[in-house]
Write a structure and sequence with these properties.
The chain has nine helices and 18 strands. By secondary structure, it is α+β, with helices and mostly antiparallel strands. It is globular and about 65 Å long. Strand 5 and strand 6 form a beta hairpin. The strands form five sheets. It has an eight-stranded antiparallel sheet with strand order 2-3-7-8-11-16-17-18. The chain has a three-stranded antiparallel sheet with strand order 1-9-10, with no helix packed on it. Strands 4-6-5 form a three-stranded antiparallel sheet, covered by helices on one side. It has a domain of 86 residues: T-fold. Helices cover 30% and strands 25% of the residues.
Amino acid sequence: MRVRVLPSILAVTLLAIAAAAPGEERETVAVFSGPTMGTRYTVRVVAAPLDDDERNRIQMAIEAELALADRLLSTWDEESELSRFNAQESTEPISLAPETISLLQIAREVGRLSGGAFDVTVGPLVQAWGFGPAGTPPQPPSAAALAAARRRVGQDLLLLDAGAGTVAKTRPDVACDLSALAPGWTADRIAAALDDLGHRRCIVDVGGEVVARGRRVDGTRWRVAVESPGRPRESATVLALEDMAVATSGDYRNAWVDEEGRRRSHLIDPRTGEPVALGLASVTVVHREGVWADALATALLVMGPDAAWELATERGLAVRLVARAEDGTYSAATTPRFEALEWAGPEE
């Protein structure tokens, strides 16, 4: 499975060996990593030294969750559940896996909160602007093509019956793309799977969306460095997290400039059909769940500075907004809950 948003969070773990009492084994950090979703995953688990059998159990649990995400949500695999749903030209209710139904419910709620800035049916517009899986050359669509794509976009085009586990399209050519939630959701599930194996202290990074559970090997909170556009990596903001998730959405990693010199981002506003223009360059959200951090980061970025700040403060979210001015300079605004999570130095 591939997602369009490239990693925008750099997870930094400052590893330390915990002191062990006589006769006890020291805890260490076991690292598991590999390719996934067109990017990479990294999982760090705090545990006593693992034997081969336990390492294999952990690796298999991680791979099972990654495979589930591919099997259900991939828009690049024609055999995935979501691809098969998108391909069905029918307006009859279609049964989907409980996991997919749950994600569609979350997407609908984030869409409602954001006034339609978040919409999983936005795929036709993404494709029209040259960012879809078919590899359309990056160029502005014609007015007719844009109008045709917009007719296929809207949350009201999906009739979701969570009780029955079905979704129906109101027009047969509607398609969904859950890649704005998939990395955070997958990271949540990996952390839960490790907990089921008795390994609750871990940090999971899937494509830059990070879920931190428990504490590090030295008993302090996990450190996650969040990059900002326009700032060198060494000056990244470091968050101290325990039982939290963090996600960043940015418009600066996947964009092109048209013939008139206008910057075109891969993030499309479903309300206008246009790429997000001047406004927010990145949004970072910290939440209890990775799936919500992931979706909210995208929604807030599309909403723009004023509306995003209003929603973040009204809901008491932990958010940092980085705005880009017309002269290319950047400015940041952070909510009190976000500031409370910033790491200021040694702790505990």
